[in-house]
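Please, structure for the following, as tokens.
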Amino acid sequence: MATTGAPRVYKNFIDGEWVDARGGKAYENRNPANTDELLGMFPASTEEDVSAAVDAAKEAYKKWRLVPAPKRAEMLFRAAELLVRRKEQYSKDMTREMGKVLAEARGDVQEAIDMTYYMAGEGRRLFGQTTPSELPNKFAMSLRQPIGVCGMITPWNFPMAIPSWKMMPALICGNTVVLKPGEDTPLSSYHLMETLTEAGVPHGVVNLVSGDGPNAGAALTKHADVPVISFTGSCATGRRIAEACAPEFKHYSLEMGGKNIIIVMDDANLDLAVDGAIWGGFGTTGQRCTAASRVAVHKAVYKEFVERFVERAKALKAGDGLDSGTDMGPCINERQLKKVMEYVEIGKNEGAKLLTGGKRLEGGGYAKGWFHEATIFGECSPQMRIAQEEIFGPVVSVMAIGSLEEALEVANGVVYGLSASIYTRNVNRAFTATRDLYTGIVYINAPTIGAETHLPFGGTKQTGNGHREAAIAAIDFFTEWKTVYVDYSDRLQRAQIDNA
């Protein structure tokens, strides 16, 4: 593939220094909308690189945990200010490496800004509890303590937001970090690392090693000096991480797949519901764990909804995310595009009705990218593979339901439980759905995407292992509770024995 000029060569960031991978190997980072554009060469890290990063983080932890949390917060606040100033530059670079349209890339960077400001604010809180003791002349309290080196493995679809969800709470709590970003989108993590360093975060506190999962990611997960692993990605990889962490009883947070649903009731505002289904299904080319890849529509409005939904999907313009007229960017790489195409064939073979799309976009401006049409299947059965399995692309399955009870059964009838949505004007239905949808996130009259940083993010069942990203929930994961009793009675008091 052709490219202009010598490519920029990026390095790992270990103990405050930019260094090459020990093995000397590197890999290409190309624009998925135009594979002729080479963004740079990135280190193909191995166990040796990971060990060096962990050693640096372990040593830095000795001092970083003793830095007062408000002082750590000042560094994060400065980082947030820098991100604000660099938002446009970082957003354009993100579009070039990930493919999402520029407005969405700006939103990704804004999430990093929001999370960084939020966690800076927590530096003067990190609250514990003080309680009365059951014995006289005794004081009781709890406080948070950091854990140590946190290994973070992040995906390619939100290359700045998701690293920030993990790094900022870990840092404000006094932990140190080794980040292994998604190999398709390492540049955004490099920007984040540069920003934190310029904001004054000391050497060794944050470290970056790029590379693939089997080499860099697995080494980080298994390292004996990494007591905490935070992972976002596929269920298959998450299961391997759980197995690797179990023997040493490591703390591990898994944020994995989703097969999210929009429920459209017969009293819904159809214009609003169609808007939500378009954004939920085809925003980020469907490459979100919260994407609305299923829509369950009441039979009374099914025909009208589908007609409007298909018309809108047909009008979506795919293309380079930097072009102002583009609605939907490419798939991230050839492998993901092939997966989407395979599921289209699965849907056809299962008997679903292809209503629009279904093909790779080729020729002209699409010739050098991984583009696929916005695709809608109708007359789907809830048990079809296209309605059960995560596709992670611009494919939506629509099915008819006859009641709220049936819709809830369909919604809960998958192995995932991340996000769900219902469109209705009936407050009773809305609250019933809120109660009975077994997901980590529920939206009323909005699509399944749009999480905010000050509330917990995560899901149930095979979506995760019970932990949550963002907000105070993230601080809970990145700290251990310590309970402290201070007895100033100057005599032995035996709690429940003397208190009987």
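The chain has two domains: 12-256+464-483, 261-444. The chain has a mean pLDDT of 97.
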